[in-house]
Design a protein that fits this description.
The chain has 415 residues and is an alpha/beta fold. The protein has two domains: 232 residues, Aspartate Aminotransferase, domain 2 (3-Layer(aba) Sandwich); 127 residues, Aspartate Aminotransferase, domain 1, CATH 3.90.1150. Helices cover 45% and strands 14% of the residues. It has 15 helices and 17 strands. The strands form five sheets. Strands 4-12-11-10-9-5-6 form a seven-stranded mixed beta sheet, sandwiched between helices. A four-stranded antiparallel beta sheet has the order 13-14-17-16. Strands 1-15 form a two-stranded parallel sheet. β2 and β3 form a beta hairpin. α2 crosses α11, α3 runs parallel beside α11 and α6 runs parallel beside α7. The radius of gyration is 21 Å and the shape is globular.
């Protein structure tokens, strides 16, 4: 292909993608969301072309007075949202936020305790992820598979036995609040810092519908800004100890972040303001929708995890589809019907089965942002059942999905 053909191909791919994913699909990826139109508009600005190092009003480059103004607004609104004494928006991803915490509070050879990947931790917490790259001795907190939560008694034993420098709660399979108060007690006994990966549930925390990690015992929260929190892709860190922040700041800059992708900041500021104004209603509906979807899938015969606990208290629904074709087949076949979700390891899966695990992970954050409520979730469950259980041609179901989405193309809970 010549250059013009490549440009045309790229333009066509982006245009087709925007129409497909934005207006014709039911997106149930638990780690995704969409920004509001105002945030999206402000995402595209001259900020994209500029470079900043350091803190607002203490930069190593000139020409940043308006960037300083916007970043300061993000910080002040974020501190208000999360009840934090410090908040830093310079990490450019949730994964980098976790790496910064690992670098701030543990050194090579130190013990580090977190959930395992099959039990719900992000890959950054694993021996083959950021924790391993940092040279930490990773030890895992066991999961109570019936409760779909950390087994607190066994987790405390792991902490007391290995005496880690750092303990991390939170994760990517995150149905219920983690027992932070109990983890705090164990961390204090061994002098460990307790951090919290709030990437998935940040919007629910901001909306005061999940748990309040700083008040329940976490020293520092690291998170993404683009999952249940519907902002631009990026990360943040916040907490209440100036001593902890003194350790974190040099690990952000100059160690791991130079320029922090300034075009994110205006969109993040708008999202912060929208979550102050609309966050409680939005987060409450996200959880109601997840519970309605889980209940409907259960009634259709799916093996939805944590039935004894009401399935979920977050945006996530986890389903064991090992009797329905396993995770890869389900996710790939549903995609043909324009229903987008991801295959996912379950606690009893071997990590080496990640290409075809026994589970799927479903999230309600994005479709709630487009205005769907409980009745729509029941219909979504019916569409999933038609493809996975009834084996209806997914291309037939795709037409129903496209018709259904026509009523849900405008973002709600925003200015």
């Amino acid at each position: 292909m010549n250059v013009k053909e490549i440009i045309d191909q790229v333009k066509d791919a982006v245009s087709t993608h925007d129409q497909w994913r934005g207006k014709e699909c039911i997106n149930l990826i638990a780690s995704e969301n969409v920004m509001s139109p105002l945030a999206w508009k402000l995402y595209n600005s001259d900020f994209e072309h500029r470079y900043a190092e350091g803190m607002p009003h203490k930069r190593y480059y000139q020409g940043l007075s308006y960037v300083d103004e916007v970043e300061s607004a993000c910080i002040e609104m974020g501190k208000k949202l999360f009840g934090a004494q410090f908040l830093d928006v310079r990490p450019i991803s949730g994964g980098l936020s976790i790496l910064i915490l690992l670098s701030s509070f543990a050194k090579y050879g130190d013990h580090y305790v977190a959930p395992s990947v099959p039990a719900g931790a992000h890959i950054s917490q694993a021996e083959f992820g950021a924790a391993g790259i940092r040279g930490l001795e990773v030890r895992h907190m066991p999961l109570d598979k019936e409760e779909m939560n950390l087994d607190i008694d066994k987790s405390k034993k792991v902490i007391l036995e290995h005496k880690p420098k750092l303990v991390n709660a939170g994760g990517t399979i995150f149905l219920f609040p983690h027992p932070l108060k109990e983890l705090r007690e164990a961390a204090d006994e061994v002098g460990a810092v307790l951090t919290y990966d709030g990437s998935h549930v940040l919007g629910l925390i901001a909306g005061k519908q999940f748990q309040d990690p700083l008040r329940e015992g976490a020293d520092v929260v690291g998170a993404s800004a683009h999952k249940t929190f519907p902002g631009p892709q990026g990360g943040m860190l916040f907490g209440n100890s100036e001593e902890h922040y003194k350790k974190i700041k040099p690990k952000i800059f100059p160690a791991l972040v130079s320029n922090h992708h300034l075009h994110r900041l205006p969109a993040l500021a708008v999202t912060m303001a929208e979550m102050i104004e609309f966050g409680e209603d939005y987060a409450r509906q996200v959880i109601k929708n997840a519970q309605a979807l889980a209940q409907s899938l259960h009634e259709y015969g799916f093996s939805v995890l944590a039935e004894n606990k009401g399935f979920t208290k977050s945006h996530q629904v986890i389903v064991d589809v090992s009797d329905n074709g396993r995770g890869a087949w389900c996710a790939e076949t549903l995609e043909k019907a324009n229903i987008i979700m991801n295959k996912n390891l379950l606690p009893w899966d071997d990590v080496n089965t990640s290409k075809d695990p026994s589970g799927i992970r479903i999230g309600t954050a994005e479709m709630t942002h487009f205005g769907m409520k409980e009745p729509e979730m029941k219909y979504v469950a019916e569409l999933i059942k038609r493809v996975v259980v009834d084996k209806v041609d997914p291309l037939r179901v795709k037409e129903d999905v496209k018709e259904f989405r026509k009523d849900f193309v405008d973002v709600k809970y925003c200015f």
